[in-house]
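Researcher: I've been going back and forth with a colleague about how Arc-like DNA binding domain-containing protein might be arranged in three dimensions. Neither of us has a model we trust, so I'd like an independent prediction. The organism is Acetobacter orleanensis, in case that matters for your notes. Sequence below.
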Amino acid sequence: MTEDSRRGRPRGPEKAAFALRLDPKLLASVRRCAAAELRSVNAQIETLLKDALARRGVPLHPAPDSHLDEEAE
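Model: Here is an independent structure prediction for Arc-like DNA binding domain-containing protein. You can compare it with whatever you and your colleague have in mind.
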């Protein structure tokens, strides 16, 4: 049993982790937006990226090396 499941949190989709370096002013702005929308900074960055891709007409596709594709086979 994972720590999250013991806390009653539903497991979300698996996500890739990576380091991100941001200008401190940009990060401060993202933090303010996240707080205003009751999101974590991570969730706010993900939302901003999805919105930006949608505005450019870039569809979201599964990662080519995703193990989730293997489970479907």
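Researcher: What would you highlight for our discussion?
Model: I'd start with this: The mean pLDDT is 84. After that, consider the following. Residues 24-56 form one domain.
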